[in-house]
């Protein structure tokens, strides 16, 4: 009897925790699905559908249970992809907006930030803003350099 | 890390020792003769051999783990040089822009340094740099 009550109590306590986890996995799943949908759309040359899928995913509220660093990376990757989509659609102004938006979410010494700087550089270059393009490429280069040094240091100290 | 490895050795050692104990058990005799454990000295020698073998395996694993992450290093080095090339292309299109020239010089130097560092550890394909 007491055992049954204990199990019932445990389930009652675990249910909210599980639903919180479900929220995180739902958010991650929809982000993954949006990326796949964008891939499919890009393959058939449908940049509009790719844009729609990525923007819809980006606008989804992030559950509290998702680590802020993880959500930043997921969102930055989407912004990077949106910037590429806009470049593909010959819309460098929009590409620049997405690159800047991605960078506004936070900058770290990682490939997500570096990719956004590369996207920013490409957009500036397409707009004929060569000095800004070179500056953005240089920032991306320095992040890659930091990551390379970290990679080689890790190898030397197992 | 060391603790995990030590535990791993102990577990592996226990498993091997148990296996050896089974293997060294004498076959059942036709007559009712009491079974005997291997001599303590022989057992110790066997355990020492097992330890040596495990140490050698551990050393191999550590060496494998210490090998460079070459694909990643090559990719990052490649990125650096591709970005340097982009910067220098922009500089060459704007020869009167002094700061772009300096940026190109700096970027090219970073590419060379990256190339040198990666080459010390890895053999990258021609496409990476």
Give a written overview of the molecule.
The complex is a heterodimer of chains A (158) and B (129). Chain A has 6 helices and no strands. With 158 residues, chain A is mainly α. Chain A has a single domain, classed as Alpha Horseshoe (Serine Threonine Protein Phosphatase 5, Tetratricopeptide repeat), CATH 1.25.40.10. In chain A, helix 2 packs antiparallel against helix 3. The longest helix of chain A has 42 residues. With 129 residues, chain B is mostly helical. Chain B has 2 domains: 48 residues, no CATH class; 52 residues. In chain B, helix 3 runs antiparallel to helix 4. The radius of gyration of chain B is 30 Å and the shape is rod-shaped. Classes of the chains: A mainly alpha (158), B mainly alpha (129). The interface between A and B is medium-sized, with 24 and 32 residues.
What can be said about this structure in brief?
The complex is a heterodimer of chains A (158) and B (129). Chain A is mostly helical and 158 residues long. Chain A has helices at 2-43, 47-58, 68-88, 92-104, 111-126, 130-156.
């Amino acid at each position: 009897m007491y055992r049954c009550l204990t199990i019932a109590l445990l389930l009652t306590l675990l249910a909210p925790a599980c639903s919180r986890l479900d929220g995180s996995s739902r958010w991650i799943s929809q982000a993954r699905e949006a990326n796949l949908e964008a891939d499919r759309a890009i393959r058939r040359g449908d940049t509009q559908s790719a844009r729609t899928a990525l923007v819809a995913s980006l606008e989804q509220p992030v559950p509290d249970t998702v680590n802020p660093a993880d959500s930043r990376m997921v969102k930055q990757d989407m912004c990077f992809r949106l910037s590429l989509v806009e470049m593909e659609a010959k819309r460098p102004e929009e590409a620049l907006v997405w690159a800047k938006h991605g960078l506004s979410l936070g900058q770290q010494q990682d490939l997500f930030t570096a990719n956004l700087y590369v996207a920013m550089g490409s957009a500036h270059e397409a707009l004929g803003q060569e000095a800004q393009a070179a500056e953005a490429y240089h920032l991306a280069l320095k992040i890659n350099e930091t990551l390379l040094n970290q990679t080689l240091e890790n190898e030397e100290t197992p | 890390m060391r603790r995990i490895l030590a535990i791993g050795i102990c577990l592996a050692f226990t498993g091997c020792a148990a296996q050896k104990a089974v293997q060294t058990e004498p076959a059942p005799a036709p007559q009712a003769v009491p079974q005997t454990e291997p001599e303590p000295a022989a057992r110790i020698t066997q355990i020492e051999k097992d330890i040596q073998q495990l140490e050698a395996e551990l050393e191999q694993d550590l060496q494998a783990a210490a090998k460079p992450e070459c694909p990643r290093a090559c990719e990052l080095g490649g990125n650096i040089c591709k970005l340097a090339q982009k910067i220098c292309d922009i500089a060459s299109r704007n020869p009167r822009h002094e700061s772009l020239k300096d940026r190109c010089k700096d970027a090219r130097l970073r590419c060379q340094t990256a190339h040198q560092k990666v080459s010390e550890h890895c053999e990258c394909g021609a496409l990476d740099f």
